[in-house]
Amino acid sequence: MELKVLVGLEEVANESSKLLIRSGYSAKSRTEKRVDYMKKGIKYELPLGKELVSYIKKEKPEHWRKWLEQTEKYLQSDNDKMLRPTIDRIDSNDNYCIDNIDFLPFYEHIQKDKAIGVTVYDFEKKSFREYPSMASVGEKLGCSRETISKYSNSGVKYLNRYAIQSEGDKQSKRSKRIERVQTYDVVSNVVLNEYDEAGTIIREIPAQIHTTMEFPKIKLERNHN
What we know:
Elements: H1 9-33, H2 35-40, H3 50-59, H4 61-76, E1 85-89, E2 101-105, H5 106-114, E3 117-122, E4 127-131, H6 134-141, H7 145-151, E5 162-167, H8 170-180, E6 183-195, E7 201-214, E8 219-222
Parallel strand pairs: 4-8
Antiparallel strand pairs: 1-2, 3-4, 3-5, 6-7
Helix pairs in contact: 1-4, 3-4, 6-7
């Protein structure tokens, strides 16, 4: 049975402002801290704090009405996280700007992310495999979708073994992918040994090596699930 809590207009308006302010700061933080965002050069070009609320009300009043509606449903559900309104980028390769944002409930935002095709490169087996979503990759590798998103397009190998590449438009790019993915820039975590004159290891030094992994005769394994 769906739980609905009675909420007033003033409560909806106040909570809408709080949620939008929080979402703005979270979006900006992602552009500054997440490797996949930084590698794509994604920027946050919107105001912050109360100025963001005023800006949306003025420039996109229909967006603000949508945010109010989503906030009301969120409150009526007794703050069900899946119904919380979120700022979504229409084009996932573009910036947070007024012409590239929409507002979606969290569950719809997740569903959109899940629809992004993902390719996982296995450096031990020297093969790669295509998956229909980040969630399916997480299930295969035993981690969360958020972890897959973090490593996707970052150039850093997950578990020092898997390089992860995501595509916004999998079908249109598939014909070009085989040729394009023959090499992949990665960062490998290694341990360097320091020896004395007798050839004995005296210490181990953790380090990172930036290199390019090649798949000259790569085997493509498609996911048919």
